Here is the input.
Amino acid sequence: MHITVKFFASLKEQFDQAELDLELDSNQLTVSDVWQHVSKTDNMPANVLSAINLEYAQADQSVKDGDEVAFFPPVTGG
Amino acid sequence: MKVEIKTAQFDPWSELASHTSEHLNHKIGACSTFVGTMRDFNEGKTVDTMTLEYYPGMTEKQLDQIVQSQISEHQLEDALVIHRVGEINPGEPIVLVATWSAHRKQAFDACRAIMEALKHNAPFWKKEQTDQGQHWVEKNTAG
Here is the structure.
């Protein structure tokens, strides 16, 4: 499975990159699995939000080949 | 309906006048507006400048969804949202929200609802340069 991962704001600084391409062996992955892969930690923190293909996503939501998965902190616009 | 992200300083009142003159509609009896402007203080610190980041693609989509939702819920005749990104200085406008409806209640209610939904859901993030260094804003003010 090939997915694109994007980071924004403080997470972009934390990971020192804005975007990366992942090739993952499994065909059944969730957003949380992707986070664990990129962060090398177990759990996705409560203050990390996620999106799949430009729509908000839950941590247990499935990811499929070709998806764009984004991780970012709580939003502060306006 | 118009949603726009701007990378340079804008005049919300000129934008409002332009939009109004381009969308004359005699069913409109009310217009409600909100302009958010950058302050020079936040959480006890002096703020010198701010950088506003967004998620190209998702931010516009979320704003479109927010505005469309409020147009439907409040039977608006029209709505306008303009939001800055990039470097912003104290006193400069950050966001303009304007709503038009037949009667005042819908315009008032929708303007507030769009602004609150934007603050809670639209992918923007603020990084402040203060007298104590740089930091990302972690939460919205109570409003």
About this structure: The first strand of chain B starts at residue 2 and ends at 6. Strands of chain B lie at 2-6, 30-37, 41-42, 45-54, 78-84, 86-88, 93-101, 124-130, 133-136. Chain B touches chain A at residues 36, 52-55, 57-58, 61, 83, 94-95, 115, 118-127, 136-140 (CB under 8 Å). The mean pLDDT of chain B is 94.
